[in-house]
Amino acid sequence: MPGTLYLIPNTLGETVSLDHVIPTHVQALTAQLTHFVAENAKTARAFLKLVNASHPLAAPLQEIAIAELNVNTKADALAGLLAPLLDGHDVGLLSEAGVPAVADPGADLVRLAHVKAIPVRPLVGPSSLLLAVMASGLNGQSFAFNGYLPTDAAARTKRLRELETRSRQEKQTQLFIETPYRNGQLLEALAASCQGGTLICVATDISLATETIRTRTAAQWQAALAAGQGPDFHKKPTVFLLLA
Q1: Which domains does the chain have, with CATH numbers?
Q2: Which of 22, 50, 109, 234 has the fewest Cβ atoms within 10 angstroms?
């Protein structure tokens, strides 16, 4: 019988303890595994060290197998990542931040696991997207994640107006993210491109000590930015949401 592919959530940023974001049973199960797939082996080991602080690992850290899966992984390499599962080992798919396979390259591996009849088990943990929807006050009955927007200013403005139109027509919250050092440019584009009454939420460092979540209209954000009172989110992971 094949092993089980466990989808293991990670914290949403640096922390000295996992206890406030990763459930105890998830940490305990993670500690039992000796095979992992992760975006980055170094940061995966750092996560496992935190797990080990309260739940001793099943093997010394240097003996735990960690295969990498990231944007540079070729499609024909995915089958090899599933080999330990087909040999009967349980494997943990560990996200770099938040939950695996959501805005994450692990989705392709999960799909192939289903093709090969490998059991897939998602574990409870923080999702920045769902936490942002919860805290935004925007429509949580209907929402869509759109990933990254174009970096070209004209293309980005066009895309924002398309999303605003869809939001208005479908009463649907639109979510997107940006490379953290471009957060400022995206908020400026949002405030300038959207109609004044459109609601815009900026959710930064969710679940961390520096967390800030603020929902304002586009007009209010535009006034705040003009007064130099924008959010402190430069180079900080941020989720943007709008509802027209």
Answers
A1: 5-122 (3.40.1010.10), 128-243 (3.30.950.10)
A2: 234
